[in-house]
Design a protein that fits this description.
about 500 residues; alpha/beta; Methyltransferase, Cobalt-precorrin-4 Transmethylase, Domain 2; Rossmann fold; 4 domains; six-stranded mixed beta sheet; five-stranded parallel beta sheet; about 20% strand; binds S-adenosyl-L-homocysteine
């Protein structure tokens, strides 16, 4: 018997965090995903890499013909025994043609399940600060298609009842037909002063809200060139937005920020900026790879008992060092006689993940901080192991040697740069729509210069605020001709995010 099944999954309105846990679970087990224009593509990251990804927008030409083809595709793929996720924007059963797809599956004897999603009206309501119902204002809401009756003379909507019977009316697919629909509500008795909001790309960083009244919203939309996709919320509740607006009040809202980082690390910092409302364009400028040879590091790991100190100055150094220990069949016990210094709280946290509590965490999170802490100790004849990146600065080995210590600094990983920028980042820089670029280490800026060429980099970053995590990175920026606009007091990602907030507020 075939195990084929189709899950109709609501992707939510746009923000990729608004999918349900059940939806993510289905994606994790998918063999095939058929997704729509309105389903955020970022959600595909939950699916196995091997899953086949089919963009439904490309299937078929005309609308209806496309739907038949989608139905046949779902039936065919599930018929092959595959787990198929049909990922649809918002909720599958709210103007999503999910019902038709289920009918086709039932007719073909294919099992299916439906996973609800946050529909656009609900997403827009929350993120625009417009409750769809409110105890003192209205107790009813209607979801209506803006396209009904477009190709027919007679509409199947009872406009009399809709205009006066429902407190709040939300139109889907109603931007191109806005004028006609507003007129209908007016003709059927709704007051011309009724507040109206258009919410475009709700819940995403591109969210746009246009507010007016039943009598003027169509003119306003036309004047501002307002485009779909958007929902139109009609009703007294729209006035609450003035007080309840929050999404577009966040400090970095509307700011486009390029984050240059190692691909593996970008997520954490980007999340801090996104939470403050920024649109983040990730731009990996570093790729971490293994050393050309493990020989020196392996030698040191085999001799761990002979060292007095292990000095780790980055999360990456910690990861590569412990992974190599693991590969050699050695675990944390080999560090029993060795003290551990971790530079900065992040590095210290990472060390703890491997079962080691650092003995020393300098308060100044850079090489000079390490040197200054060690200068208070007697380092004469101490043996120090300092696993590091290939292009690291020499401050620690040089200064510790001056104190009489023996320092071994084998390469634990290398920083190399990717050959090109991601197309959307390049596009935004070329269009001059970027507000700020962040550099979190010297190599991020040096590699960007290497990737673009110095001259082109300077030209592309004209008018873009430069944010650097600390003085060393700032110095590298200046050496390449960049002026640093933002630099936090302490060299952490949290502090950098706060400094950005202060700069743009
Ligand atoms: N099943 C979807 C609706 C699909 S119909 C749902 O439940 O949300 C397509 C219409 O949905 C668009 O024309 C627009 O009116 C609305 N829509 C979908 N996503 C939207 C978004 N992020 N912001 C505003 N409107 C959206």
């Amino acid at each position: 018997m075939s195990n084929g099944i189709v899950y109709l999954v609501g992707a939510g309105p746009g923000d990729p965090a608004l999918i349900t846990l059940r939806g993510v679970e289905c994606l994790k087990h998918a063999d095939v995903i058929v997704y729509d224009y309105l389903a955020n593509e970022l959600l595909l990251c939950h699916a196995p890499e091997t899953a086949e990804r089919i963009y439904a927008g490309k299937i078929g030409g005309r609308h209806n013909q496309g739907q038949d083809e989608i139905n046949s595709l779902l039936v065919a793929k599930a018929g092959e025994g595959k787990v198929v996720v049909r990922l649809k924007g918002g909720d599958p059963f709210v103007f999503g043609r999910g019902g038709e797809e289920c009918e086709a599956l039932r007719d073909a004897g294919i099992p299916f399940e439906v996973v609800p999603g946050v529909t656009a009206a609900v997403g827009a309501s929350a993120y625009a600060g417009i409750p769809l119902t409110h105890r003192e204002i209205t107790a009813s809401v209607a979801f209506v298609t803006g396209q009904e009756g477009k190709d027919k003379d007679e509409s199947s909507i009872d406009w009399d009842r809709l205009s006066l019977g429902s407190g709040t009316v939300v139109f889907y697919m109603g931007v191109t037909t806005l004028r006609r629909n507003m007129l209908r509500l007016l003709e059927h008795g709704r007051s011309p002063d009724t507040p109206v909001a258009l919410v475009r790309w709700a819940t995403t960083p591109c969210q746009q809200v246009l507010v007016g009244t039943l009598s003027n919203i169509a003119d306003r939309a036309e004047e501002s060139g307002f485009k779909p996709p958007a929902v139109t919320i009609v009703g007294e509740v729209v006035a609450l937005r003035e007080k309840l607006q929050w999404f577009d009040r966040r400090p970095l809202c509307g700011r486009k920020i390029v984050v240059t980082r190692a691909a593996e690390q970008a997520g954490e910092f980007s999340a801090k900026l996104t939470a403050r409302g920024a649109t983040v364009l990730e731009c990996p400028t570093i790729r971490l790879v293994e050393p050309e040879s493990w020989q020196l590091l392996d030698l040191a790991i085999r001799e761990l008992h002979s060292y007095d100190w292990l000095v780790l100055t980055s999360v990456n150094a910690v990861r590569y060092f412990f992974q190599r220990m693991h590969a050699l069949g050695v675990d944390a016990r080999a560090l029993a006689g060795c003290r551990v210094c971790a530079v900065g709280p992040k590095t210290a946290d990472e060390v703890q993940l491997f079962g080691i509590r650092p003995d020393l965490v300098p308060s100044d999170y850079k090489a000079e901080g390490v040197v200054s802490e060690f200068s208070r100790l007697d380092m004469l004849n101490n043996r120090i192991l300092f696993p590091r990146a290939d292009k690291a600065r020499d401050v620690i080995p040089r200064d510790l040697k001056k104190m009489g210590a023996h320092v071994d600094s084998p390469v634990a990983y290398r920083n190399i740069f990717p050959e090109r920028l991601p197309p959307e980042t390049l596009f935004a820089l070329e269009k001059r729509s970027v507000d700020c670029i962040t550099f979190t280490s010297s190599s991020t800026v040096q590699n960007l210069a290497a990737m673009l060429g110095e001259e082109l980099m300077l030209d592309m970053l004209k008018g873009v605020a430069v944010a650097s995590i600390g003085p060393i990175t700032s110095k590298s920026c200046r050496e390449l001709g960049l002026k640093v606009d933002i630099e936090p007091q302490s060299y952490t990602l949290d502090a950098l995010a706060e400094a950005l907030e202060a700069h743009f507020c």
